[in-house]
Design goal:
By secondary structure, the protein is α/β, with parallel strands linked by helices. 33% of the residues lie in helices and 22% in strands. The protein has two domains: 7-244, Peroxisomal Thiolase, Chain A, domain 1 (3-Layer(aba) Sandwich); 254-403, Peroxisomal Thiolase, Chain A, domain 1 (3-Layer(aba) Sandwich). The protein contains 13 helices and 15 strands. Strands 1, 2, 5, 6, 7, 8, 9, 10, 11, 14 and 15 form an eleven-stranded mixed beta sheet that branches. It has a two-stranded antiparallel ribbon with strand order 3-4. α3 (74-89) crosses α6 (143-152) and α10 packs across α11 (302-316). The longest helix has 16 residues, at 74-89.
Length: 406
């Protein structure tokens, strides 16, 4: 068997509550500017208003023609917009690469949730007996990956992974394994989500996990998460390929770690995340002392944040005192199946610029989260290596390890 290949990131694409594109995203992250604001969603006569992370200024007609929009639920639209940017950033927009040796691996938690809710209301609320004949292709979880594959003529392995809030992290991990072990030479990977719909918001509201003002990860007085939408995609390829064509290399995707708590459906445990972080470090050949920054899962719920800090202390020991640990969900919100993709992009931009994005909206230190959570203001730091954490209901965990290429 040939030796595993080194994998690097050469292209980034994203849109979120912080704006459309990586430039707008980085400007907001560096300023510690939150895109979370009150928003309303309605179905029939019912309306719910909560803080949320909407993509500002997004117009579908600016990105797609009428025929395309009949097929694309917003979550698939977001994946395509981010994929265009990522491939262009990687210098591959012209299609000058082996598309049969390229994979598309995307994450989503809900798939075409907007089309699904609209159809349900027509059936159950309005008494309709027929629906849009394109409902199935609009709502399928694999619609985003299929759309990216067709848009760019990519004929390699194409699949979607749905593991809730860890979906994009698991998608990137699967893509990394494919490239590392020679199944493909590159991949477009990450995740997208657009499930800011009435029923989903009410479902999370009933769990009493939503903040009433904004997202305050690790802060004393934090009240919960804020739902959001968007997409974060990257292009990964072998180090040899990137160097041969003179591509910009953001960082090496050096390792991944995955685990399950195997304890409780909704109550997180420190043991599972700790196991995933250790696995990512081992796969990357990193020691705890090598890591400078962790982009935390950091949802802003009281239990999750405390358990994640406990897990970090278990893995890093005394090194935890010197780590920078921030949650960019404080600015772009929790985009569920897209969250890990957005946070991977945020981590890569932080490494590129040598600046740690802050945990915004922080009010006061919580003794249960006694780490350097970079409150409110970005901090300059040359980041040698970083982890990006993603944890999902069901105790399902994914951690991505990045380092500066050598």
């Amino acid at each position: 068997m040939s030796a595993p290949r080194r994998v690097v990131v050469t292209g980034l694409g994203c849109l979120s509550a912080l704006g459309i594109g990586r430039a707008a995203t980085w400007a907001a992250l560096a300023e510690g500017r939150s895109g979370i604001a009150p928003g309303s969603r309605s179905i029939g006569p019912y309306t719910v208003t909560v803080p949320m992370g909407l993509v500002p200024g997004y117009s579908p007609e600016a990105h797609f023609d009428e025929d395309e929009l009949t097929l694309l639920d917003p979550y698939a639209q977001y994946a395509l917009v981010a994929a265009r940017e990522a491939l262009a950033d990687a210098g591959l927009a012209g299609g000058d690469y082996d598309r049969a040796r390229t994979a598309v691996v995307l994450g989503t938690g809900a798939g075409g949730e907007q089309a699904r809710e609209e159809a349900a209301w027509k059936f159950l609320g309005e008494g309709k007996t027929r629906c849009n004949p394109l409902l199935v292709p609009r709502t399928n979880h694999q619609a985003s990956a299929g759309a990216v594959s067709m848009a760019f003529g990519i004929t390699g392995p194409t699949l979607t992974i749905a593991t809730g809030c860890a979906s994009a992290g698991h998608a990137v991990a699967q893509a990394w394994l494919m490239v590392r072990h020679g199944l493909v030479d590159r991949a477009v990977t990450g995740g997208s989500e657009a499930n800011l719909v009435y029923t989903n918001i009410k479902a999370f509201e009933s769990m009493r996990v939503l903040a009433t003002d904004t997202c305050r990860p690790f802060s004393l007085g934090r009240g919960g998460m804020t739902l959001a939408e968007g997409a974060g995609l990257v292009v990964i390829e072998t180090l040899d390929s990137a160097r041969a064509r003179g591509a910009t290399i953001y960082a090496e995707l050096a390792g991944v770690g995955m685990s399950a708590d195997a304890t409780d459906v909704v109550h997180p445990s420190a043991a599972g995340p700790a196991q995933a972080m250790r696995a990512a470090l081992e796969a990357a050949g990193l020691e705890p002392a090598d890591v400078d920054y962790i982009n935390a899962h950091g949802t802003g719920t009281p239990v999750n944040d405390a358990e994640e800090c406990k897990a970090i202390r278990q893995v890093f020991g005394s090194r935890a005192e010197r780590l920078k640990v921030s949650s960019t969900k404080s600015m772009h919100g929790h985009a569920l199946g897209a969250a890990a993709g957005l946070e991977l992009v945020a981590t890569l931009l932080a490494m590129q610029h040598g600046v740690v994005p802050p945990t915004a909206n922080h009010q006061a230190a919580d003794p249960a989260c006694a780490l350097d959570v970079v409150p409110n203001l970005a901090q300059p730091l040359a980041i040698r290596a970083a982890l990006s954490n993603s944890f999902a209901f069901g105790g399902i965990n994914a951690v991505l390890a990045l380092r500066q290429p050598s």
